[in-house]
Write a structure and sequence with these properties.
It holds the Pfam family zf-BED. Keywords: Metal-binding, Zinc, Zinc-finger. This is BED-type domain-containing protein. One of its GO terms (molecular function) is DNA binding. It comes from Lactuca sativa (Garden lettuce). The chain has 88 residues and is of the alpha+beta class. It has a domain of 40 residues. Strands 1-2-3 form a three-stranded antiparallel β-sheet, with helices on one face. A hairpin with a 5-residue loop joins strand 2 and strand 3. The longest helix has 9 residues. The mean pLDDT is 76. Zinc ion binds next to loops.
Length: 88
């Protein structure tokens, strides 16, 4: 019995790595100034914390930042009392 051990060395195909540069254009359009700012007056309470007074109902919204003010406008229940002057 004869064993032919032919070890063929296959030349590795050089994979042509075509570096395709995907120039992804990220359109980062973000308005920094929120519209909610236009309807509130920022004040500082006696504790030095920032608060906002709604220009519509004069409600003082303290703590939570501008998001809390927006919740006042849109009327998120459980978070802050909805503005009676703004109807969503
Ligand atoms: Zn209000």
């Amino acid at each position: 019995m004869q064993l032919d051990m032919e070890s063929r060395e296959e030349e590795p195909l050089q994979a042509q790595s075509q570096a395709q540069s995907h120039s992804s254009v990220l359109s980062n359009v973000r308005t920094k100034k929120d519209i909610a700012w236009e309807h509130v007056t920022q004040v500082v309470d006696e504790k030095g914390k920032k608060a906002w007074i709604c220009n519509f109902c004069q409600k003082v919204i303290g703590g939570g930042g501008i998001n809390r003010v927006k919740k006042h406008f849109v009327g998120v229940k459980g978070e802050v009392a909805a503005c009676p002057k703004v109807s969503p």
